[in-house]
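Final report, closing paragraph on structural work. Over the funding period we assembled a curated collection of sequence-structure pairs, and we close with a single example.
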Amino acid sequence: MKLNRTATAVVAGSAAIALVLAGCSTDDSTDATASSAATSTAADGTEAESSAAVTFEEAYIKEKPADKGMTGIFGVLKNNTDEDIDLTGFTIEGLKEGTTFEQHATEDGKMFKIEGGHTIPAGGEFELAPGGAHLMIMDNDEAMEPGQQYTIVLNFSDGSTLTQEIEVRVQPAGEEDYGEDGELSAPGHADPDAGVDDEHAGH
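Its predicted structure, as stored:
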């Protein structure tokens, strides 16, 4: 009887050890699988970013108070393909209904809406800058304060779409503003007597 108790204890102990080892093996396998999945996801994200037809770098929205109906979007559009691509349209998610979105250019000190969209040259870039070509948020009476984040959706002529976060920033002092008829109010661009109280000013 004593021998039987000993044998039973040995068997029970062996079973417990086997269970512990099995548990460790399962944990190790789970950790390895999770690590592999995380690595794969990171790699996929990097590959997707690098293979995007167009990227929008150094992008920002110029801040505006609620009593200004418009503001500008600036940055650098980079074309990673061997064909010219047009920016056919864009939107900012979350803005109130009735907000409109336009593409503008500037010539002889005056800004104007363009039709057809800005063209990003093959393998090159297109700069959206104060006093030059830029994007406009129009007919909007919401305050857009520095540090706020919005989602911009850009549509391109090749059928691709780029969606990314974009921050509201204070535009550096000395950058061009716009007068009531779209005339640039910075020195060297416009008549110093031109008014800047219209809603076009400071976009």
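Helices lie at 2-50. The first helix runs from residue 2 to 50. We thank the funder for supporting this effort.
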